[in-house]
């Protein structure tokens, strides 16, 4: 081979290398400029490019750090499947399952409390406050007018019972008397004892009205207490004086009939004097002075979202309701006892009278007194306050067929539960059935309060049915009666029953209309 040719070939290769170096540097420079330009573009740029630029996340290609194995969280089979590189062999059967998260070792009690409070706030936010419709104003008798009505009714029924016992046959030609009643057989001291018991509240109510009108406001509570003590002394003195004269003409056993209600009074009311004179006696905390006179504060309802406040309000209303019912039962039995039973106890042994008719009269008087006291002590406004409190209290229904798969919460007394909530309390499961539920699950007092006052028109309907039944029975007896004193007695009882029937029917009609509209509103709002 010619040496010159070898030199020329080496020169050609050297020239080729020198020609390729600028091309490589140009390509590298262009790539650097293109990369710099793409990195300087804004992320939300609105520029339009013919080619789509793909910006990769710098951390996308990195391998995630290997988590340290926590003892007790991975089984041995899983430990054997862990590769040295940090990956795990996942079988096909478990490929669709989410990997188990390691437990949070830093979850302390404070974090748990925060989660519990968060659940409570979430549950409370779903509670719908009940909607209330105001009850229209219904005229009601005052205490003084009611005491006048009650006194006239009991005195007349007592007089009718004396007619049943001491009637005469004055219309016969051979009759030795010209009067319809044998008054000489009636013991005047028994009549005085009965009149003192039946008229004590009327006297106290009249004198109390005078004190409220003329006495200074600052001295009114003291004057009322002194008035009760003074009247109590006068009443006891009158009763003792009548009892002394009754003992002169009657056996000592009959004296126990007169004193029997006193033992019942001490059992029910203790040594308190107020219930003996005032049927609407309330604790001193429920009274205040306003514009120169003492005003008895009626129980009021406060729409609260605090469960503790709702339960406390229900407890106060329940106590007031029970006190009124205790007063109603005692007063109605006391009036019927002295107006219908005591005259029969002191009748002469030789006197013949119709025991069946006297007993029937006694029962009618007791039922009528009971309904009259109910209408007076439980007006519609008062029942509406109890109804509103019952809606906020709510009710829990016990779930019998419980299973462990029911999603429930532990009942907490600081939470207000929504309708349909499932809770666990005292190893039992309960479901909320009220619009707003602040009651304690399994508390029978709360359950009875809600059952009675959730719809007071049901209670009024029951009383209305009792009054209608009494009127129908008296009408049937009146149709079958032929004696003049029977007819006179039934006419007077029917007249009193018609007045009470009108009041009950009016109250029931108003409550039924109002609570029916209220229920429609609750259904529309999702309550």
Description:
By secondary structure, this protein is mainly α. The chain has a domain at 143-378. It contains 14 helices and 8 strands. It has helices spanning 3-40, 76-80, 109-125, 143-166, 188-214, 220-249, 253-269, 274-277, 307-345, 355-377, 380-393, 444-453, 456-480, 484-524, and strands at 287-290, 293-296, 396-398, 409-410, 417-418, 422-425, 428-432, 436-437. A 4-stranded mixed beta sheet has the order 3-7-6-4, with no helix packed on it. Strands 1-2 form a two-stranded antiparallel ribbon. Helix 4 (143-166) packs antiparallel against helix 5, helix 10 (355-377) runs parallel beside helix 14 and helix 11 (380-393) packs across helix 12. The relative contact order is 0.09. Mean pLDDT is 77; it is low at 1-9, 40-62, 64-124 and 283-297. Belongs to the TMEM39 family.
Overview in brief:
The chain has 527 residues and is mainly alpha-helical.
Major pleated sheet: 4 strands, mixed
N-end to C-end Cα span:
110 Å
How much of the sequence lies in strands comes to: under 5%
Number of helices: 14
Number of strands: 8
How are the strands ordered across the major sheet?
3-7-6-4
Shape: elongated
Which class do the helix and strand fractions yield? Answer: mainly alpha
User: How much helix is in the residues?
Assistant: 55-70%
Radius of gyration over all CA atoms, rounded: 45 Å
H/E series, N to C?
HHHHHHHHEEHHHEEEEEEHHH
| Average pLDDT for all residues | 77
* Poorly predicted ranges: 1-9, 40-62, 64-124, 283-297
Subcellular location: Membrane
Organism: Cryptotermes secundus
GO cellular component, one term: membrane
Family: Belongs to the TMEM39 family.
């Amino acid at each position: 081979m010619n040496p010159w040719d070898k030199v020329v070939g080496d020169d050609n290769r050297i020239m080729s290398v020198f020609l390729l170096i600028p091309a490589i540097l140009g390509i590298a420079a262009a790539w650097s400029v293109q990369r710099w330009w793409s990195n300087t573009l804004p992320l939300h740029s609105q520029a339009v490019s013919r080619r789509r630029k793909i910006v990769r996340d710098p951390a996308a290609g990195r391998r995630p750090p290997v988590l340290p194995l926590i003892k007790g969280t991975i089984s041995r089979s899983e430990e054997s499947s862990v590769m040295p590189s940090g990956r795990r062999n996942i079988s096909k059967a478990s490929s669709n399952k989410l990997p188990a998260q390691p437990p949070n070792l830093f979850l302390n009690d404070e974090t748990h409390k925060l989660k519990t409070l968060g659940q409570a706030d979430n549950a409370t936010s779903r509670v719908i406050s009940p909607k209330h419709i105001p009850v229209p104003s219904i005229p009601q008798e005052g205490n003084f007018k009611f005491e006048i009505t009650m006194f006239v009714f009991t005195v007349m029924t007592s007089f009718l019972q004396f007619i049943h016992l001491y009637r005469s046959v004055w219309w016969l030609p051979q009759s030795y008397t010209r009067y319809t009643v044998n008054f000489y057989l009636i013991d005047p001291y028994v009549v005085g004892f009965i009149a003192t018991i039946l008229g004590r509240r009327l006297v106290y109510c009249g004198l109390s009205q005078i004190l409220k009108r003329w006495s200074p406001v600052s001295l009114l509570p003291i004057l009322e207490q002194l008035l009760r003590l003074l009247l109590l002394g006068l009443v006891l003195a009158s009763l003792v004086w009548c009892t002394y004269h009754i003992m002169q003409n009657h056996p000592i056993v009959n004296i126990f009939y007169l004193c029997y209600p006193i033992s019942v009074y001490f059992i029910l009311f203790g040594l308190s004097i107020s219930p003996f004179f005032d049927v609407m006696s309330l604790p001193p905390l429920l009274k205040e002075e306003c514009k120169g006179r003492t005003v008895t504060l009626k129980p009021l309802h406060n729409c609260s979202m605090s469960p503790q406040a709702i339960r406390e309000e229900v407890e106060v209303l329940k106590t007031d309701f029970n006190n009124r019912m205790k007063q109603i039962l005692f007063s109605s039995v006391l009036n019927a006892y002295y107006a219908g039973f005591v005259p029969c106890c002191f009748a002469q042994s030789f006197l013949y009278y119709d025991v069946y008719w006297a007993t029937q009269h006694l029962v009618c008087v007791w039922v009528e007194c009971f309904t009259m006291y109910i209408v007076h002590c439980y007006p519609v406004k008062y029942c509406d306050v109890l109804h509103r409190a019952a809606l906020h209290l709510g009710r829990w229904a016990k779930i019998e067929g419980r299973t462990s798969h029911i999603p429930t919460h532990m009942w907490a007394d600081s939470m207000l539960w929504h309708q349909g909530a499932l809770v666990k309390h005292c190893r039992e499961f309960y479901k909320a059935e009220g619009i707003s539920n602040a009651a304690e699950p399994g508390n029978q007092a709360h359950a009875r309060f809600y059952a009675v006052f959730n719809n007071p028109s049901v209670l009024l309907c029951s009383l209305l049915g009792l009054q209608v039944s009494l009127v129908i029975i008296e009408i049937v007896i009146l149709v079958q009666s032929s004696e003049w004193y029977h007819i006179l007695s039934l006419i007077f009882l029917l007249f009193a029953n018609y007045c009470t029937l009108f009041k009950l029917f009016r109250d029931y009609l108003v409550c039924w209309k109002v609570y029916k509209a209220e229920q429609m509103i609750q259904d529309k709002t999702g309550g």
